[in-house]
């Protein structure tokens, strides 16, 4: 059991390292790994190689790692907190809200394109806030069923808003497609500079919740027997996941599928649902998957960059189905 | 004289405008088994959940080991009483040892790892309920009776002096019911204060030192089984013509006049 978990951790970490190396080395210009290492350690002199690695590929690779880790952790938090294997950032409305915020900026205010991450973040959090506000009043406040239904309703509302904006400006739809499909860009550290505090809050919340979430596994009554307040844990987990997913959407568009599938892959591979395993390993695996997917997306038809969303799904789904087939 | 493990007086609970408990008393003592019985909707589960601190009360006094419930938070309460719910979730991928480890977590600090002592306590709880051979099995592969024993092991791992079980046998077959009954009785013999919510009156009469009868949100009796479950009370509270017969060695029978009683409901 312990051996199996250790193997999974080692494999995920190795995959993440390999994906990072490939992401830094490959692109419009393929660089030898030694040059990449030299550029990173500062032993490479001024020049285009150094510039490509440090100013284009490093920020993009770090973004991919952060977004992948954030979505993996957001999914793990929500699936644990809601006790529902279908939970993902979509379920608490974040994806729908962030999509609406981004499309609003891209299509209605294309002159303010710099506000894209802010719009996605703000509307993602607004949608999650609405979901929690609805789910935490009245009888059964904070119940799982109520939260999921509120999330689906609010998600549908923002989805309809997105569709309305797209149909009102049919000539500008093209500019929104990349965001909706999900993809990273090579414009330095700008987006990370805006959203890193949200990542930080979300990851800290996730670390603090690993043990409490385990205590929810046997149901709210057992959790209450253990002195845990299940609804409070669910609220903190939901807010943490909303921060992570909204910040991820601000950088890379709508990649909610990653948040659904990564924690499942981790659980099936590790043979355990313990959050002290699932949360950190989902972070590493999510980072590995998105770095690998992004590298594929920008090299397979270079110099054209394809949106990473479909690639990640193409990488993730076969692995997921393989593990699912062998699951008990 | 030391304070009883639990002393609850005149507990009242209203949810919205609906009064569910209208004044219930409950006392638990170390080494004794108390069974709470009553018809559906009488407030048995609400009473137990309320004194356990899971359901909010409207008024009334609840003292654990002499301390007011409101002053006991989180882990401190979790180390005094363990609660086995009527139904608990059966998550995928969780083994018996994992599940019982979750119960033990109340003794593991937020930044600590379980010590050897904690692992031994988990193993001991699993052995104590007799599921040692299933320790590495997943919960999803267990039968109802096995699962119920695991739930009790989760509570035992809390290492609390009081064990409360809300209808632990309601979904079990006769054999599994008897084995859970024996287990609870033997835990009382170990010195735990055990509380059992039960529908099955012959079971309650066989294992309990004291039977608390709930009716319409009130506790209407708290006495040894033969005094609490008289034919008059069975008629008054359950509306049936029935009598309870017991003999030494925990053999009990509930004689019910199933068909002759006109116009009166029967318990289910």
How would you describe this structure to a colleague?
The complex is a heterodimer of chains A (328) and B (268). Chain A has 328 residues and is mainly α. Chain A has a single domain (2-91, 172-326), classed as ABC transporter involved in vitamin B12 uptake, BtuC (Orthogonal Bundle). Chain A contains 13 helices and no strands. The mean pLDDT of chain A is 89. With 268 residues, chain B is α/β, with parallel strands linked by helices. Chain B has one domain (6-222): Rossmann fold (3-Layer(aba) Sandwich). Chain B is 31% helix and 27% strand. Chain B is built from nine helices and twelve strands. Chain B has helices at residues 44-51, 74-78, 96-104, 116-128, 144-156, 174-189, 201-207, 225-228, 231-238; strands at 6-15, 18-28, 33-37, 59-64, 67-68, 81-84, 162-166, 193-197, 210-215, 218-223, 242-247, 251-256. In chain B, the strands form three sheets. In chain B, strands 6-7-8-3-9-10 form a six-stranded mixed sheet, with helices on both faces. A four-stranded antiparallel sheet of chain B has the order 2-1-4-5, covered by helices on one side. In chain B, β9 and β10 (218-223) form a beta hairpin. In chain B, α3 crosses α4, α3 (96-104) runs parallel beside α5 and α4 (116-128) runs antiparallel to α5 (144-156). Chain B starts with 5 loop residues before the first strand and ends in a 12-residue tail after the last strand. The mean pLDDT of chain B is 91. The interface between A and B is medium-sized, with 27 and 40 residues.
């Amino acid at each position: 059991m312990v051996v199996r978990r250790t193997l999974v951790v080692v494999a995920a970490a190795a995959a993440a390292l390999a994906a990072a190396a490939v992401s830094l080395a490959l692109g419009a210009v393929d660089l030898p790994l030694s040059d990449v290492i030299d550029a990173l350690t500062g032993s490479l002199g001024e020049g285009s190689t150094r510039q490509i690695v440090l100013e284009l590929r490093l920020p993009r690779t770090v973004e991919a790692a952060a977004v992948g880790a954030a979505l993996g952790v957001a999914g793990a938090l929500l699936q644990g907190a809601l006790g529902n294997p279908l939970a993902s950032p979509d379920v608490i409305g974040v994806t729908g809200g962030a999509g609406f915020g981004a499309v609003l900026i891209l299509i209605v205010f294309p002159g303010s394109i710099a506000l894209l991450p802010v719009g996605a973040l703000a509307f993602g959090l607004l949608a999650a806030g609405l979901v929690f506000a609805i789910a935490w009043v009245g009888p059964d406040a904070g119940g799982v069923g109520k939260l999921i239904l509120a999330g689906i309703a609010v998600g549908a509302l923002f989805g309809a808003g997105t569709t309305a904006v797209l149909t009102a400006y049919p000539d500008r739809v093209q500019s929104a497609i990349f965001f909706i499909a999900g993809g990273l860009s090579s414009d330095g550290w700008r987006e990370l500079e805006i959203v890193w505090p949200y990542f930080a809050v979300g990851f800290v919340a996730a670390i603090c919740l690993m043990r409490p979430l385990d205590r929810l596994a046997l149901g709210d009554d057992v959790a209450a027997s253990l002195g845990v307040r299940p609804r409070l844990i669910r609220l903190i987990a939901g807010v943490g996941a909303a921060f992570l997913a909204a910040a991820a959407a601000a950088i890379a568009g709508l990649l909610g599928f990653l948040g659904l599938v990564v924690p499942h892959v981790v659980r099936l591979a590790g043979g355990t649902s313990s959050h002290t395993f699932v949360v950190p390993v989902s972070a590493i695996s999510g980072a590995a998957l998105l770095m690998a997917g992004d590298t594929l997306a920008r090299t397979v038809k270079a110099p054209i960059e394809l949106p990473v969303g479909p690639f990640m799904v193409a990488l993730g789904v076969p692995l997921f189905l393989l593990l699912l087939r062998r699951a008990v | 004289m030391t304070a009883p493990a639990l002393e609850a007086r005149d507990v009242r609970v209203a949810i919205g405008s609906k009064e569910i408990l209208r004044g219930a008393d409950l006392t638990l003592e170390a080494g004794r088994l108390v069974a709470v019985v009553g018809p559906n909707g009488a407030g048995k589960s609400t009473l137990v959940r309320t004194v356990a601190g899971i359901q909010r009360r409207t008024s009334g006094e609840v003292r654990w080991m002499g301390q007011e419930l409101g002053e006991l938070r989180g882990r401190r309460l979790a180390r005094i009483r363990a609660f086995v719910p009527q139904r608990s979730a059966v998550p995928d991928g969780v083994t018996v040892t994992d599940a019982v480890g979750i119960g033990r977590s109340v003794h593991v600090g937020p930044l600590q790892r379980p010590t050897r002592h904690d692992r031994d306590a988990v193993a001991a709880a699993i052995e104590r309920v007799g599921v040692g051979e299933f320790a590495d099995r997943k919960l999803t592969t267990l039968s109802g009776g096995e699962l119920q024993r695991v739930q009790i092991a989760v509570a035992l791992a809390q290492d609390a002096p009081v064990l409360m079980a809300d209808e632990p046998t309601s979904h079990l077959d006769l054999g599994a019911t008897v084995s859970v009954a024996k287990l609870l009785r033997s835990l009382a013999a170990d010195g735990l204060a055990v509380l059992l919510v039960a529908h099955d009156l012959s079971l309650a009469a066989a294992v309990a030192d004291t039977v608390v009868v709930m009716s319409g949100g009130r506790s209407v009796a708290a006495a040894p089984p033969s005094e609490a479950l008289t034919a008059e009370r069975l008629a008054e509270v359950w509306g049936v013509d029935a009598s309870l017969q017991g003999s030494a060695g925990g053999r009990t029978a509930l004689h019910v006049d199933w068909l002759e009683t006109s116009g009166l409901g029967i318990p289910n």
